[in-house]
Design brief:
Elements: H1 2-19, H2 26-38, H3 43-67, E1 85-93, E2 100-107, E3 110-115, E4 119-122, E5 126-132, E6 135-140, E7 146-151, H4 154-170
Antiparallel strand pairs: 1-2, 1-7, 2-3, 3-4, 5-6, 6-7
Length: about 170
Amino acid sequence: RVQVELVQRLGRFRHALNSIGDTPSRRDLEDLIAYARSLELREEEVGEELEGVRAAIEATELAARIERGNLPLVPRPDIAPGDACHFAAPVRFGRRRADQYGHLLLTAGWIKFRGAVDLSVAWSEVAGVQRSGKELIVAMAGNRRQLRFACQTLSEAARAGVVAEHLAEAA
């Protein structure tokens, strides 16, 4: 009976999560966290879902700050003079688990990957950016090539997605 009740509460929470759509407000996201508490769901029962909700809140806050003209700055000694780094995180580059590990840098002028092999792509060469889970997917202009960067956390991926979208649109 206890297990049946838990499954029902999980079902109600996941239904509410799926019902908020693709562009929920901060209030919608905070209400989901409160709803999980009201259903007495523990972190281990909905931790993955709550991690996604918290990452979405963080992304919403960052997008609002950027909209107000407050683009984050990440001090980096390896950035060319006149350029500014707005995001940096350890990532896996590619689609396979055996792909390269290094650091993703999103600067005013470039997407940079620093690893065993370095890669730099100007924002003017980017057709679009999207986030899927922990991955940042960069579509290249003029061809069907995509670059995939897997972040370590949903929070990092959410922030990378917001910053990358802003920089791609500004280019």
